[in-house]
Amino acid sequence: MGPVLTARAETWPTRGTFRIARGSRTQITVVVATFELEGIIARGECVPYPRYGETVDGVIKDIMSLANQISDGLTREELQSIMSPGAARNALDCAFWDLEAKISGKSAFELAGITNPTELVTAYTISLDTPDAMAKAAHEAHDKPLLKLKLGGEGDFERLKAIRVAVPEKRLIVDANEGWSGDQLKPYIDACIDANIELIEQPLPADCDDDLLGLENTPVICADESAHGLATLAQLAGKYQSINIKLDKTGGLTEALKVATKANEMGLEIMVGCMLATSLGMAPAMVVAQSAKVVDLDGPLLLAKDRENAVHYEGSLMHLPSPDLWG
Fold first, then answer.
1. In angstroms, rounded to a whole number, what is the distance separating the alpha carbons of residues 68 and 18?
2. Higher pLDDT pick, 224 / 17
3. Is the pLDDT score of 278 beyond 90?
4. Where are the beta strands (DSSP E) in the chain?
5. Domain annotation covers residue 192
6. Same domain for 285 and 244?
7. Per-residue pLDDT tens for 63-78?
């Protein structure tokens, strides 16, 4: 007999307005899948993402469609073959990991074969805004050693210049969220080089990846919207040098760990990122992030409040999650 499954939506306010190239928001909605088995409560969180055709109601429906099978004993391994990668599978997969950890008395890190997990330093996101506003925000993030700048096309030259003047010694990466065109690619890359940008995340729309072929002497180009689960890795060859692994895209920690292994075999650097979410979404991502070159798990820092037993941040330093939260 397996656990009883429930799923619910939760709304969390952001810390001010959060903007990227595709729009802005003042709150987020996450979906939490909960298992209950003999007094044990296990949870997994996901973020339905309209970019991938997901809705909150649709994700809850997809999760609950497996309630009977999970109650009948469906396993985490079996879940991988009956549900496609995406937010719904992520919530269920992470709930399975949490349940297995609580039943076994071992942490999710141990279950993943990681014997000595370490604290992580995350990038901190500067929301898309005017050059002056972004420069001010970057300057005020004095305890954050690595900043991720949200860019979006028009005005990016001025944003890069203003931010670099404001924080001349700070490590910087950028995320265009598919906001550049093919014509803008070379001049914006040159501007990134001038600003000493270390990594450029998803500069072009995912269906324009071929424009990245043959680029040389650039910052590291990292795939985000172009990279999901294992099936998408082959198409990145020759275009990207890095991959942003997000559990909502891989459909959970199980496939994320496999993606990280395969990406390393392909010579791709690993970045582990997140949707805007609570600490319940960050905790499982911290497992796969143990092998990452770049960690971008600052979601809770961009919210007005977080969960009980939340991941503890000291500046950009992430402490390991409490078992009372997850895993």
1. 38
2. 224
3. yes
4. 4-20, 23-37, 40-46, 120-121, 124-126, 146-150, 171-175, 197-201, 220-223, 242-245, 269-272, 294-295, 313-314, 317-318
5. yes
6. yes
7. 999 999 999 999 999 9
Q: What is the CATH number of the domain that holds 254?
A: 3.20.20.120
Q: For residues 205 and 216, what is the distance between their CA atoms, to the nearest angstrom?
A: 20
- 219 lies in which domain range? 120-318
Question: Mean per-residue pLDDT for 189-196?
Answer: 97
Domains identified in the chain, total number: 2
The two structure tokens encoding residue 309: 């037993």
Q: Does residue 301 register a pLDDT over 80?
A: yes
| Beta strand residue intervals within 170-275, DSSP E | 171-175, 197-201, 220-223, 242-245, 269-272
Do residues 101 and 90 touch, judged by C-beta distance below 8 A? Answer: no
pTM: 0.95
Q: Is the dihedral of CA 101, 104, 110, 111 positive or negative?
A: negative
Single residue among 80, 105, 130 that ends a domain in this structure: 105
Active site residue ranges: 150, 246
